[in-house]
Amino acid sequence: MKKFLISIIIFLSISPSYFGQNSSSFTRLGLGDVEYTYSARRVGMGELGVSVADADFINSLNPAGWYKLNTTRIEFGLYYRGMFLSENNVSTYYGKAQFSGFTIAFPVSELYGIGVAAGIVPYSNVSYKTEQTFYTDNPYKLSYEGTGGLTKAFIGTSYKLPFGLVIGSSLDYYFGDLTYKSRLDFLENTNSYAAYENSYRPDGVGFTFGLISPNINSLLADSGTVSDFRLGGSLTYTGKLSADSILTSTSSTSTDTVDYGKTKLDIPFRLTLGVSTVLNKEYLLSLDYLYQPWSNYKVNTISSFGLRNLNKLSLGFEYRPAKSLGSTFWEQIIWRAGLSYEGTQYLVNNEGINQYSISGGFSMPFNDENTVDLAVLYSMRGSRGLDLIKENNIRISVGISFGELWFIRRQY
Prior knowledge:
Elements: H1 2-14, E1 19-20, E2 33-34, H2 40-44, E3 72-87, E4 90-109, E5 114-134, E6 140-160, E7 166-186, E8 193-212, E9 226-237, E10 239-251, E11 255-267, E12 270-279, E13 283-292, E14 298-299, E15 302-303, E16 310-319, E17 334-348, E18 351-365, E19 371-381, E20 390-404
Antiparallel strand pairs: 1-4, 2-5, 3-4, 3-20, 4-5, 5-6, 6-7, 7-8, 8-9, 8-10, 9-12, 10-11, 11-14, 12-13, 13-16, 14-15, 16-17, 17-18, 18-19, 19-20
């Protein structure tokens, strides 16, 4: 119980902390960058892993993955993202650190694979700041800035059917605060400007449904090397979120609320499919595909420009040494690596923005059930041609996972 209270205190103290700015101009489109996982473990192996279930990890992508939990688990994470931007002959760097998620899960029945989990994790992130100066007869500067994002809180459960198929579902509540600003400054008159601020505060309910197949390694010709082989998938439905919308106009002479009211954000579903296998009981390989048709994203029934359908392909690897008495600290470290290709939802000047990523990480145990997880992900997207911006990103993720027996049936 002490670990739970300590985790809550840490979560409350760090969750509002934001430093710097991501400053990716692509996040002006739609709801910004999509977040796939809060966990340093999944970041280290390509961010997905929908068919993977662990006894010591809370899978936020697929609720069916909770069936293996054997202790009460508490997990939270932080990350730092650094971004190198280059356009023509100009380069700059931005950095940002923030809380990435908090989850808690309880095993209810090992026999029936019932696990209950809840948490709060990011869904999307908007963070950019750009400006452009025009040297005309009356020179002026245009500035654009956006902040905020969408967050998901969830609670759900898993269940193992008699023939080994595991299903899971969660009820998801979405909320957020999105702010988009634009400003015009006349350079020859420093007191003359005009600015607009458009704010949305969406919220609404959705659900996630997931499944993981039974171990089908017996169908393979060589079942001695392959100790586990599974298929998995999850479907997240968000639907229409209701949003308070306020448009404010400010100038050097006045401030006026131009418009306010309710609007709808129509967010497309997300489908993830994957396969995983364990070789020699120590080597895990996973292959995943994620699809989300962002071309269907609408604000107040109007399609948003600059968006296309998102596709992500991810390959993950994990080496988990077998536990044995007398193992040294270094012999207990879990190692991970990942590769991914992402056809992002961004479409700029009719040019699709693609992203390539490589990642790696490890988990360091500080006792049998608790670990510190670290991961580094490096990605590239965009290009310098066609008036685009090339981005090189580095993400450093840190997570802490606590495991403890809370509910033990007394023997009388």
